Amino acid sequence: MADEEDIILSELDDEELVLQMHDDLYDGLKDEIEEGVRILLDRGWTPYDVLTKALVAGMTIVGADFRDGILFVPEVLLAANAMKAGMAILKPLLAETGAPKVGKMVIGTVKGDIHDIGKNLVGMMMEGAGFEVVDIGINNPVENYIAALEREQADILGMSALLTTTMPYMKVVIDTMKEKGMREDYIVLVGGAPLNEEFGKAIGADAYCRDAAVAVQTAKDYMSRKHNKLAAG
Ligand code: B12
């Protein structure tokens, strides 16, 4: 039987390498993930494919085993760190489109919630699509969102929540925006694994986005409508 340590990533074909990366992500092996990402890029993979097929797909397996009680917080944290290391290599490449800025987004995870991988991914993909992104991090009370929107003169607010206990806080933010008479000045996009379309509607968001690709498309659609509206005066 082959010893794990004997595996030389660069000798694997693409398919084997991607499967090995899923395993390495599962085991929280940061160095191996970084190496795998570099190899795939060298072989001509697009940063987006590396992100979705090697990293996000691997994290989905981690998520399933966490849910089923096979993995626990410390292991998931290691996996998350490995994922972030891979994402750090891809980030500049995804952002490197040189496209004119199409709009500005403030994005953050809500109060009580420290999950940030999905939010970071959305931020990266938005930057890649030509948006300017101001990331206000995790565990944000409503004041942080309001202050950032006003300070940055943003077009879009993005809120992330991964817990059923923290997602209702999005409504607190939207209600506060309404009270301050500023709700209509922004496009509000929400996301995170436990959310769905109905929830997005119920709390008064403009849209719920299932993943980062949908977030980019939705943001673009709203920005072009906003421009058309302004042009129509
Ligand atoms: C990694 C992880 C952790 C890591 C987080 C590390 C980090 N830096 O983020 C750690 C170990 C710290 C952690 C802690 C906890 N976690 Co946790 N975690 C996960 C896990 C396995 C993966 C999440 C992830 O990163 N996914 C990968 C990314 C790419 O996907 P995503 O986040 O869904 O994001 C995509 C979309 O949702 C969308 N999106 C996300 N945000 C946004 C925002 C906008 C604006 C838009 C448009 C779109 C969008 O686009 C993203 C990219 O495509 C999930 C399982 C799961 N199925 O989600 C559990 C999970 C979310 N965690 C869970 C739990 C219970 C916890 C803890 C309470 C565990 C504990 N007992 O302590 C704590 C809570 C800590 C806290 N207060 O926040 C539960 C939540 C259950 C529930 N229904 O509420 C889950 C679902 C696991 C489970 N099934 O039990 N966790």
UniProtKB/TrEMBL annotation:
Coiled coil: none annotated. Keywords: Cobalt, Metal-binding. Residues 8-102 form the B12-binding N-terminal domain. Residues 102-233 form the B12-binding domain. It comes from the Bacteria. PANTHER family: METHIONINE SYNTHASE. This is B12-binding domain-containing protein.
